[in-house]
Write a structure and sequence with these properties.
The structure holds two protein chains of two kinds. Chain A has twelve helices and 14 strands. By secondary structure, chain A is an alpha+beta fold. Chain A has three domains: 50 residues, 2-Layer Sandwich (Uridine Diphospho-n-acetylenolpyruvylglucosamine Reductase, domain 2), CATH 3.30.43.10; 112 residues, Uridine Diphospho-n-acetylenolpyruvylglucosamine Reductase, domain 3 (2-Layer Sandwich); 107 residues, 2-Layer Sandwich (Enolase-like, domain 1), CATH 3.30.390.50. The radius of gyration of chain A is 19 Å and the shape is globular. Chain A starts with 6 loop residues before the first strand and ends in a 6-residue tail after the last helix. In chain A, 47% of the residues are buried. Chain B is of the alpha+beta class. Chain B is built from 20 helices and 29 strands. The model of chain B has no long low-confidence stretch (mean pLDDT 96). The chains are: A alpha+beta, B alpha+beta. At the A-B interface, helix 11 and helix 12 of A face helix 4, helix 9 and helix 20 of B.
C-alpha cells in the first residue's frame, strides 16, 4: 500500500500555492492539495488518488487562526480540529460547531485534520460540511484573480466535490456566532464512537411566542452531500413544539430523502428510518436548549 | 525418562515462592510497548529486497496468461515470480483434511479475491508496487460460489473440479442414545443460527524476510511466526526440501490470535529470493491485504440445533447440525476449528447424549484461519441460546436451569458424551459467586422497572467450559493425525550462576517469558532478573509447538519444571560429591544445596554450577561438566480417538460464568452494555494479573464478535470489507468496565494445577451478549439468531415484532 510516484512541492505562502496550481493547470498537470492528509493520504496510499503533484500546505502557518470579526468567527483553513476543540472562543460563541468537532474521528485524527481540509474534501458523511450548511457558513476561496466568498449552500456540489476550482485554495471558513436564544443540536448514530455517522443531524431553531421559528435541519451520511430538510423545516415552522410534531417532521424529512446510501453497515431502508429518528431527537434537544419544553 | 513435575505450588523447592502465583509485572512488556522489540518490519539486512504481491480481483477465474516481461524491465526490479515458477519449484500446500491445497501463487485458476497470482522483488516496496501494475494477467471469470449453502446446490460451480463436489468433509457423530433422549423428552427446543465470518486482527499484520541459500539449498525465514517448528515442516513439504533445510526464526510480534498464518507470503518471498540470487526478500502484509486475503477470517457457519429438555428443566440431549464455509482451500486449517467443539460439546451440563452432523464446504471466499477460541465460541452461542429458550419456555430463571444441569464437583474427572475428560471444577459455586457479585435479584428488579418504562433491557447468565492445553488428537475427526504436542526448553547455568532458558517461541503478548522467569527464579531461589529467556529458532530449539489452544502456560510450566528438576538432580549429585555424602541425603531449597538436617552444610546453586564448568577434577565420576538440562513436556494420558471421535483431548477444563445487562435502543437497534460481571476458574493462577489481562482482551474480542465484526461478501463472493472503516474492531469506547473475580479449583492433572486460560472469555462473551439482547427483546416476541447483532439486523427484528411502534 504505497502511493504511485508523484512530485511534491511545499509552497511558503497561499499566493505561491495558488500560482503553483495555476501553472500546473496551464501545463495540463494534475495537482492535488494536501492539508492534514487524514482522507487524502490513505487514498494516495491505496492508489485511488494518483496526482502528478502533491502541493503540501504545511508551511502556510498564516492560515492557522481562530478570531471573531463582527459576529463571525473566522477560522484559517489550516487550523486543526484539535485547535477548534480547544478554542474557548468557539466553545462559548459557537457551541454547535464545537460539539460537532468532538465527534470527528479520534484525538489523533483531530490533531492532524484541518478545518479547511474537511470542507474541501466534502465527504458526505463528515461532520463539518453538515454544520456549515446548518449554520450558513461562508468559504473564502483564493485564486490567482483574488478572493471570493461562497456560501455553504452553494459550496457543496456532490460527493467529494465543491465549488473550489483546481486552481484555487480554500483559505478561510467563516462561522456566524450562535445568536442568543438559538437552540441547537448535533447528534450522530454511528456503529462506534469516532466512526463516520450512519446518519447524523445538525439542527438550530428559535422559539418565539411558543412556536418554532427559523429552523435549520441538516442531515448527513444520507446522500451525496449534506442535505437541508426543507419539508421538515416547513412542517415545524410556526408550530408549537411537541413530540408528535417532531416525529411528523422526521417522517417528512425521511420521505424527502431521495435515495439514501447503502453500505455494509446500513441498508438504505434502515438509513431512511434513522433519518426519522435523528430529526426527532435533534429537534427535541434543540427545543430544550432554546429554553422550550415539549408537550 | 520424564522428571517428576510439581503438581502444586507447595511442591516447588522453595520455602516461600516469591514470584509464582503473584501479580508479577511482565518482563517483556517494556520492549513490546516501546516498539523496541525486533519486530520484523524493523529488520534490515544487507542487499535486502522488498516484495509486493499481485492478487486476483476475481473470486473465481481461469488464468489464461501472465505476462511479467514489462515488470521485469522496470528499474529497481530484481525478480518476478509467476505460476510457472511455483509449478516448477514447489508442491501445493498441506491441508486438513488432506488434498484441498493449492500452490502459493494461483497457477490454473484463482479461487478467491486476493489470491496471489504473481509477485515482484524490488529495491523498495513502492517500486515493487509500481512494477505490479506492469504485469498483465488474462483472466476468464467463472461463476462463483458465494456462500456455504450455495456450495451444496445442485450444479454449483466446483472449486476443485477433480473432487467432484464442494464438500471438504462430512461426518455424523452420535454419542449415546440421542434419538431416545429426544423421543422421551417433554420438550424439544429447536432453532437455526448464523455466525458470520470474523476473526483475528492483531495490531501487527504478518511479515517475513525469507532468504534462499543457493549453495546449501536451504531456506531461512525470519518473521512473525506463531508456531515455528510446525511452520517449518509445512515449508519443507512445499519446497520439497529436507525438513532440516528450513530454518524458521520467529521474531517478536504484535499479537497473533491465530491470524499469523503467512505461509503464502513466506513461500513467495523465499522463491523470489531464490530467483534474485539469494538476496533476502522482505514481505510485510498491509492491512488491506490482511483483511481481504490474510489470516483473519474464521467461522462462517450455519447451524440447526435442538435441545431435549424435561419439564423440570433437566436437559437430556443435544443435536447440532453444522454447515461451515471453510473458504476456497483448506490451507488455513479452518476445518480443525469445526472439530474442537468435541472437547466441550455439552458445555457445563450433564447432558447424556449428543449428535454432531458436520458438513464443511469450499466456496470462493478466503480460506479460513484459526482464531482465538478455535471453534467453540459459535458452538456456545448455539448451546447457550437454546438453554435460554428452554428456560423461557419452561418459565424458569436462566440461572436456575443452568444450576439444575451442572456437572457436580464430586463427579470429576468427568467424561462428556463426545469423549473429552473435564479435570475439575465447581460450577455452582462459580454461578453463585457471580450472581452475588452482580446482585442478580436487584438487577432483575432494575430490569422490570426499565421494562415498565418501555425500555428494552435484558440480562443474561451464561457459562462455558474453556478447554485448555490442546492435543492433536482433538482434531483427528477432520483428518489431523497425531497424539501429543511437545513443548521443550533448555535451561543452562553459566559459570557465574546466571540462568538462561531457551524456548522455541517468540514474544506474542501472552507473558510467557515472564512465566518462565517466575518459575525459574522460585525454583532456584534467585531474583527474576537473573533469568534470561531467549528464543531458539528451529535450528537449535528443542521440540516445541509454541502458543496455541490455550496450552503454552501449562506446557511451558511442565517443560521448565521438568528441566529444572533434571538440573536439580545434577546439582545434588555434584554437591553430594563435594560434601562427601550421598545425593539421597541432600536437598535443594531456595537454590541452596544442603545436607538434610545438618545446619550450615550447604552451598549455593551458582557455586555448584561454577564447579561443574571450572573444576572438572572435583566432579563425581561420570558427571559431564554440563549444568544444562532439556525437558520436553506433553500432556499425559492422551490417546487416539475411538470410532466416534471420542478421546481425552484437552487436558484442562477451566470454567466461567458471565452476567451481562444490556439495553437495546428500540428506535435504532443499537446495543449498550450496561453491566458486565465475570467469575472465572482456571485453576492455579501462575500470574493473576496476566490472567486478568487475558480476560479483558478476550471480552473485548467477544464484544467485537457479538456486535461489530463481520467480513461481508456480496452475492458474487466479492469481499465488501477491505479497511477498518468496514471491519469494525471494538475500541475502548465499546468495551465496558468489567467486574471480575476469580475462583481457584486446581487441576489434578497439570503442572502446579494451572489450567489453560489463553482464550477464556471469547468462548462466552458472544453468547452472553446475544442472550442478554434476546432477554431484552423477549417482550416483543423476537430473538436475534445471527452474529454480529448489528443495529441494522436488530432494527429489522424489532420492525418485524407485532407491537405498537413508537411514534
Amino acid at each position: 500500500m504505497k502511493p504511485a510516484p508523484f512530485d511534491y512541492v511545499v509552497p511558503e505562502t497561499a499566493e505561491e500555492a495558488v500560482s503553483c496550481l495555476q501553472k500546473y493547470e496551464d501545463d495540463g498537470i494534475e495537482a492535488t492539495v494536501l492539508a492534514g492528509g487524514q482522507s487524502f493520504v490513505p487514498l494516495l496510499n491505496m492508489r485511488m488518488a494518483r496526482p502528478d503533484v502533491v502541493v503540501d500546505l504545511r508551511k502556510l502557518k498564516t492560515l492557522k487562526y481562530i478570531r471573531e470579526e463582527d459576529g463571525v468567527i473566522a477560522i484559517g483553513a489550516m487550523t486543526t480540529k484539535r485547535e477548534v476543540e480547544e478554542s474557548e472562543l468557539i466553545q462559548q460563541r459557537q457551541p454547535l460547531f464545537h460539539a460537532s468537532t468532538l465527534e470527528i474521528g479520534h484525538l489523533q485524527i483531530r490533531s492532524r485534520g484541518t478545518v479547511g481540509g474537511s470542507m474541501a474534501q466534502a465527504d458526505p458523511a463528515a461532520e463539518y460540511p453538515a454544520v456549515a450548511l446548518a449554520l450558513g457558513m461562508e468559504m473564502k476561496i483564493l485564486g490567482t484573480d483574488g478572493e471570493r466568498i461562497v456560501p455553504a449552500d452553494e459550496f457543496f456540489i456532490t460527493y467529494l466535490t465543491t465549488e473550489i476550482d483546481s486552481t484555487e485554495l480554500l483559505t478561510e471558513v467563516r462561522v456566524p456566532v450562535l445568536a442568543e436564544g438559538t437552540g441547537w443540536s448535533f447528534q450522530e448514530l454511528a456503529r462506534r464512537h469516532g466512526d463516520f455517522a450512519i446518519v447524523g443531524g445538525a439542527v438550530t431553531l428559535r422559539l418565539d411566542g411558543g412556536v418554532c421559528t427559523d429552523p435549520h435541519i441538516v442531515l448527513f451520511g444520507v446522500g451525496a452531500t449534506p442535505v437541508r430538510m426543507t419539508a421538515a423545516e416547513s412542517a415545524i415552522s410556526g408550530q408549537a413544539p411537541s413530540a408528535e410534531l417532531f416525529a411528523q417532521a422526521g417522517e417528512q424529512g425521511a420521505a424527502e430523502l431521495e435515495s439514501p446510501m447503502a453500505d455494509v453497515h446500513a441498508s438504505a431502508e434502515y438509513r431512511r428510518h434513522l433519518a426519522k429518528v435523528i430529526i426527532k431527537r435533534c429537534l427535541l434537544e434543540a427545543t430544550e436548549r432554546a429554553g422550550g419544553s415539549v408537550s | 525418562m520424564t522428571a517428576k513435575i510439581p503438581q502444586k505450588l507447595e511442591d516447588l523447592p522453595s520455602s516461600e515462592p516469591r514470584w509464582v502465583g503473584k501479580d508479577v509485572k511482565r518482563i517483556e512488556d517494556p520492549k513490546l510497548v516501546t516498539g523496541l522489540a525486533d519486530f520484523i518490519e524493523n529488520l534490515q539486512m544487507p542487499g535486502m529486497l522488498h516484495c509486493a504481491i499481485l492478487r486476483s480481483p476475481h473470486p473465481h477465474a481461469l488464468i489464461k496468461s501472465v505476462d511479467a516481461s514489462e515488470a521485469l524491465k522496470h528499474p529497481g526490479v530484481s525478480a518476478v515470480l509467476t505460476g510457472e515458477d511455483v509449478l516448477k519449484w514447489t508442491n501445493p500446500a498441506m491441508t486438513v483434511p488432506d488434498g484441498w491445497g493449492v500452490y502459493c501463487l494461483a497457477t490454473d485458476k484463482a479461487r478467491f479475491v486476493g489470491e496471489p497470482v504473481a509477485a515482484v522483488a524490488a529495491i523498495s516496496r513502492s517500486v515493487a508496487e509500481d512494477a505490479l501494475e506492469l504485469i498483465e494477467v488474462e483472466y476468464e471469470p467463472l461463476p462463483a460460489v458465494a456462500d456455504a449453502k450455495k456450495a451444496l446446490e445442485e450444479g454449483a460451480p466446483l472449486i476443485f473440479e477433480d473432487k467432484g463436489s464442494n464438500v471438504i468433509h462430512k461426518r455424523l457423530f452420535t454419542w449415546g442414545e440421542v434419538d431416545q433422549a429426544f423421543a422421551d423428552a417433554d420438550h424439544v427446543i429447536s432453532d437455526s443460527f448464523r455466525w458470520n465470518r470474523l476473526g483475528a486482527n492483531p495490531t501487527e499484520t504478518f511479515g517475513v524476510v525469507s532468504q534462499w541459500d543457493l549453495l546449501e539449498n536451504s531456506v531461512t525465514c525470519r518473521g512473525a511466526f506463531q508456531s515455528s517448528s510446525h511452520f517449518a515442516l509445512g515449508r519443507a513439504a512445499t519446497f520439497g526440501l529436507p525438513s532440516n533445510r528450513v530454518r524458521i526464526i520467529s521474531h517478536p510480534h504484535g499479537g497473533s490470535f491465530g491470524g499469523k498464518g503467512g505461509a503464502r507470503g513466506t513461500d513467495i518471498a523465499a522463491l523470489l529470493s531464490r530467483k534474485a540470487d539469494g538476496r533476502p526478500v522482505k514481505w510485510i502484509e498491509d492491512r488491506m491485504e490482511y483483511l481481504i486475503a490474510g489470516g483473519g477470517q474464521s467461522w462462517d457457519r450455519f447451524y440447526e440445533a435442538s435441545l431435549a429438555v424435561n419439564a423440570d428443566g433437566t436437559m437430556t440431549g443435544f443435536k447440532v447440525k453444522l454447515l461451515d464455509d471453510i473458504g476456497a482451500t483448506g490451507e488455513g486449517f479452518g476445518a480443525i476449528s469445526a472439530a474442537k467443539p468435541l472437547a466441550v460439546f455439552t458445555g457445563n451440563y450433564t447432558i447424556g447424549a449428543a449428535q454432531y452432523d458436520m458438513t464443511l464446504v469450499a466456496t470462493n471466499r478466503l480460506p479460513q484461519s484459526p482464531y482465538r477460541g478455535m471453534g467453540p465460541p459459535p458452538h456456545y452461542f448455539v448451546l447457550e441460546s437454546l438453554v435460554d429458550s428452554a428456560a423461557r419456555q419452561l418459565g424458569m430463571d436462566v440461572s436456575e436451569i443452568r444450576r439444575k444441569n451442572y456437572i457436580q464437583p464430586d463427579q470429576f474427572p468427568y467424561i462428556i458424551p463426545s469423549g473429552n475428560e473435564y479435570d475439575s471444577g465447581n460450577y455452582e459455586a462459580c454461578l453463585d459467586k457471580v450472581l452475588d457479585m452482580a446482585d442478580y435479584q436487584a438487577l432483575r428488579e432494575e430490569q422490570a422497572k426499565a421494562q415498565e418504562a418501555g425500555r428494552l433491557v435484558g440480562i443474561s447468565v451464561v457459562n462455558a467450559i474453556e478447554p485448555g492445553v490442546f492435543d492433536w488428537n482433538a482434531y483427528s475427526a477432520v483428518g489431523m493425525p497425531g497424539v501429543g504436542v511437545p513443548e521443550g526448553v533448555t535451561i543452562s547455568v553459566d559459570v557465574m550462576g546466571s540462568i538462561t532458558v531457551r524456548v522455541g517461541f517468540s514474544l506474542e503478548g501472552q507473558g510467557q517469558y515472564t512465566l518462565a522467569a517466575q518459575l525459574l527464579a522460585d525454583y532456584f531461589g534467585v531474583e527474576m532478573d537473573q533469568i534470561r529467556v531467549v528464543h531458539a529458532d528451529t535450528a537449535s530449539a528443542p521440540p516445541h509447538f509454541g502458543p496455541g489452544g490455550s496450552r503454552l502456560g501449562v506446557a511451558l510450566t511442565g517443560a521448565i519444571l521438568g528441566a529444572a528438576k533434571k538440573l536439580e538432580d545434577k546439582f545434588l549429585a555434584v554437591a553430594a560429591g563435594l560434601m562427601q555424602t550421598e545425593a539421597a541425603n541432600m536437598e535443594m531449597v531456595d537454590g541452596w544445596l544442603r545436607i538434610k538436617g545438618v545446619p550450615d552444610a550447604e552451598m549455593p546453586m551458582a557455586a555448584v554450577a561454577g564447579t561443574m564448568l571450572a573444576r572438572s577434577d572435583l566432579l563425581p565420576p561420570g558427571m559431564e561438566p554440563c549444568p544444562e538440562a532439556t525437558s520436553v513436556w506433553t500432556a499425559p494420558g492422551r490417546a487416539e480417538p475411538d470410532e466416534e471421535g471420542r478421546c481425552k483431548s484437552y487436558l484442562t477444563a477451566a470454567n466461567a460464568c458471565h452476567v451481562i445487562m444490556v439495553e437495546v435502543d428500540r428506535d435504532t437497534g443499537m446495543v449498550e452494555i450496561l453491566k458486565y460481571f465475570v467469575v472465572d476458574d482456571c485453576g492455579t493462577r501462575l500470574n493473576p494479573g496476566n490472567v486478568e489481562g487475558m480476560l479483558h482482551g478476550a471480552i473485548a474480542q467477544g464484544i467485537g464478535a457479538a456486535l461489530l465484526e463481520e467480513y461481508v461478501y456480496d452475492e458474487n463472493a466479492q469481499p465488501l470489507v477491505s479497511t477498518f472503516m468496514d471491519y469494525l474492531m471494538p475500541t475502548i469506547n465499546d468495551v465496558p468496565d468489567t467486574q471480575s473475580a476469580a475462583m481457584v479449583t486446581p487441576s489434578p492433572f497439570s503442572p502446579l494445577g494451572a489450567k489453560g486460560c489463553g482464550e477464556n472469555a471469547i468462548h462466552l462473551t458472544p453468547a452472553g451478549i446475544i442472550c442478554a439482547i434476546n432477554d431484552a427483546l423477549a417482550p416483543l416476541g423476537v430473538a436475534a439468531k445471527e452474529i454480529p447483532a448489528s443495529p441494522n439486523r436488530l432494527w429489522e427484528l424489532i420492525q418485524s415484532a407485532d407491537y405498537p411502534q413508537d411514534k
